[in-house]
Structures are given as structure tokens and as C-alpha cells.
Amino acid sequence: MFFICYSHDRSRKESRRRPGRDQEKTRRRLGGDQEETRRRPGGDQEETRRRLGGDQEVQQEEQQTQKEPSKLTLAPQPQARMRYQAREVGVDGRVRLVLEGSLTARDRVGVQDFVLLENFNSEAAFIENLRRRFTENLIYTYMGSVLVSVNPYKDLGIYSPQHMERYRGVSYYEISPHIYALSDNTYRAMKTSRRDQCLLISGESGAGKTEASKKILLYYAVSCPAPQRMASLRDCLLQSTPVLEAFGNAKTLRNDNSSRFGKYMDIQFDFRGVPVGAHILNYLLEKSRVVHQNHGERNYHVFYQLLEGGTEEQLLHLHLDRNPQKYLYLVKGNCPRVSSMNDKNGWKALVKALSVIGFTEGELQELLDVIGSVLHLGNTQFGEEEDGQTYVTTEMELKTLTQVSRGLWQPPRGRVDGAALTEALTHKKLTAKGEEMISPLTFEQAGAARDALAQAVYGRTFTWLVEKINQSLALQGDGPLQDGSLSRLLDIYGFEVFQHNSFEQFCINYCSEKLQQLFIELTLRSEQEEYETEGVAWEPVQYFDNKVICDLIEEKHKGIISILVR
Ligand SMILES: Nc1ncnc2c1ncn2[C@@H]1O[C@H](COP(=O)(O)OP(=O)(O)OP(=O)(O)O)[C@@H](O)[C@H]1O
Asked: Ligand 1 centroid to 212 CA: how many Å?
């Protein structure tokens, strides 16, 4: 399993110098790798020195003056270099230059960049290279500006602050491939080119996209210069993860912590590279999971976390039982517990994160009311009279519905009326020739209405949560959010056609295909077109262009969407 991080950081000019331009050049630059290190260590070191020193200098200078963005030069400064070296000495306790450490940290297994693969057209050679590296715990390999990652499913100890430090300011190809190198180079490309950058993370479910996006976020949170007043923005951004995971992640057959929504995260930096704002866009939450889960899967984590970790008073107030088996929306997958997850700790982390983000006690209570209401709604059962009239079966369930209504709000009227809710779940309103008519729902229709309500309530709550997080990020940051922000993290769904065969899944798959198109457009197609335009000799690479799939869905008049809306 692997995923691809695509760093779209190439200006037109840069791309002319890039690996694809000619493999030979890249081979010379990277590959000879060890040989090259031997040949020109001084040159390499000097270049790195300039970069490292330059970055320090930039920070220093920019602290002094905020008015001159043109000061973003990467000139060396001996004093800054000394400080950098001294820091490295402190980390490992040995007196040596950071640059030497970086250079010897290059790995020697297979090729670090697929561009250097002799048999570059062979899938078997590609996999073999990944395999060789993976057996040595080297999970990252470059492919030009793309980073390929294989999920190790174990802690390799490669994300420590020391690792962050090692990759900071170092040229892309100087040390072993790493997600921090990608993060750092993207950040520096943004600062030097003053252009927005985008990291596209894609792969099948369980490939490691969410973990990768967390690592990138953490890298920026730790490495970017941030004045004290920006600390709360950083905390808020980091704490958004447990909240989004509690409400948007669930155990699936492939991944115990699978994100069931798409996330588009936008981090904004000022001209000095200081993070000043952030924005999260959520899309396509898998709402059907609220009412149904496949065997071996769970509903969203938050339900189990509340039942396991909520206080006695909280559960009493919500009329909830600790046992998840009591709730029909939680038993479909027959999987109340997951060995790799600790729901009690998850609950603690969620409550803490909500408070850091700025949720008040009242807002937390409202959130709990909604979660409780969804569980009670799932337990509402219907009966059918002989004449086909549907009713809510027992007195107990009527009480449950009252409980549901207490947890729900209908702005601007306040709490939802229990009787009105019961009526709404068993009847529908029709308008014919300008006249309104109320007609009873059948047994099946009533069940579908209940489930639709539960999904809508949960879906809107999730959107509300994200909006609240965004408001908080805007408050902590430097004023209102602007368009054209400077860095983006895009974390998309895995492609899981086999699991859901619904319109919802269709939209998710369509979204994945469009992102794949973007990837093809920005890497393979544009690169090959450029060779043609410039008359560079090259061997065409065969690849599957999924444009036919996108056309099938979106083509005017003939595409599936056109046919559906007819
Ligand atoms: N770099 C890594 N190092 C160690 N373990 C990892 C790494 N990346 C992922 N994992 C493990 O794999 C699991 C699945 O990863 P992750 O949740 O990031 O997948 P995903 O691609 O986001 O899946 P989905 O599309 O289902 O959300 C993680 O919970 C973690 O245990």
C-alpha cells in the first residue's frame, strides 16, 4: 500500500530544470548519489550552508523589519551558521557539523529517487525498489517532486524533533527522503517564489494519508517561526485533529481510524513565513454510516467515546446507558470495541481539544445533546395499523422521542416540540394544486424518515463543528481569512468502491477521479508536453489517463450526471 504526496511547487522556470527534463541531469545531480558526495562534498556543503544560514538570516532580519519583503534573500551569514551548528552539537552531544551528519544520513538502499531506476519502465523493478527499501525501514522514496510512502504500521521513530531539525533548510535530495523534507521544501518554495503551494495526499484507505497530513501539520507547527501571539493559533490548529477524528473517523475493515470525510486545509502565512491563519473545508462526510455499518465496522468514534468516557452525570442527563449494545445505530457492525483504540482516552482528548479551540460549557452541552439525540432516534421503532397507518410503537419510545426533541434545536424557535417530531416522523406533507395535505407514511417510509433525520442532524452538526473551528482559527490568527492563501493541505478519501454502492460513494469516487486528473495533469501530461515543445529527446511513458472516467461522469448531455438530472 502506498500513497502519493504531490508537491505542486514548480514554477515554469523551475520545471525546466527539474528531473523529468532529462534523467541524465538528475542522475548526475542526485544519483551518482554516494559517488557525487565523494566528488563534491565541499560544493554540496557550501550550498547547504548558504541555505541553512540564509534561512536563519531571513528570520533574524525579518524580526527586525517587517516592511521589506525583498529581504527574503538566502545569503549566507557566518553567525547564523554557527548557531545552527551549535544546536546540532547540543542534540547528539558530539562535536560535529550538522552538514556532515546530514550527508552521512543518506541511505544506500536501492534508489532514493525512482528517476534513477535503471529499468524505469518496469513495474516489477519499481515494486522491488520499494520492497528493498521497506525491509530496511526506509518507507519514503522520491519520484522527482513526488514522494511515495509505504505504510509501516509501526512506530519507526523517524518523526522526532531531532528529525525535524535535521530536515530543516536542507536541500531536497541531500539526505534520505522524508515527509519533513517535502514539507520543508514546499514551505521554502512558498517563501522564495511567493506563490501558493499545494500538497496533495492521496492513496487507498489505510495508506497513511491522515497520518501524513498530521506529520506535515506538526512540522509546520514546530518549525515555522511563530511569535508568542501565534501560539494559540498553532494550538487550535493542532487540536482540530482530535475533534475532526472523533466526529469524522470510524473503524472500517481496512483502517481502525478511517477518515470518512474529505478535508481541505488551508494554512496562511505572512511574508515572513509566520502562520497567521488557517481554514478547514470538509466535504462529503459519509452520513450513511450514522445509521448503518458493515459487519466488523463501527459508527463514528464519538458515540463510543461518549458512552465510555462521559461522566455519570453527563450520561444521566442524556438518559444514555454506557453499554453501546443498547443502541441500534451502534450494533449493526457487531463491533463495539476496537483493540487499537482507547475510547475513554479519546473522550478526554476530545473534551480537552474542544476547550482549547474555545467551545464553551454551553456549546459542549449542546453538542452532547445532539449526539444523544441521534442515539435515541436510532432506537425509535414504528408499528403499522391494519389500515396502513404508522405509529411509534411503545410509550417508552415516545419518551425516547421526547428525549430526542429535547436535544434538538430548531432556530429560532428553540427546542423541538416532541409531539411535532412524532408527527413529522410518521406523516408527510404534500402540496397539490396549491393545497397542503398531510398523509401518513408507510412503515418503511417512517423508518427511512427517521434515518434521514439522524443523518441530516449528524451531518449538520459536523459542518457546524468545522465552522466553529474555523471561527476560532480566524480569531486566533491575524484577522479575517483571505482568498489566495499561501499553503494548502488536501487530504482525500481512499477509493473504496466495494464498500458503498450509493450516490454518496459515487460522489466520493468522482472527487477522487478528478483529483487523479489533476495529478496527471500536473505531473505526467504537462511534463511530456514540455519535452515535445522543447524538442527534448525522451521515451514516452505509458500511463492510464483517467479522463475517460471523468468524461463518463461529467460530459455535457451524455455524462452520468447529465442523465441523472434530466
Ligand atoms: N508513517 C506512519 N508510521 C507508522 N504508522 C503509520 C504511518 N502512517 C500510517 N500509519 C498507521 O496506519 C494507520 C492508517 O493510517 P491513516 O489513518 O493515515 O490512513 P488513511 O490513508 O488516512 O486512511 P483512510 O483513507 O481510511 O482515512 C494509522 O492509524 C497508523 O496506525
From this structure: 8
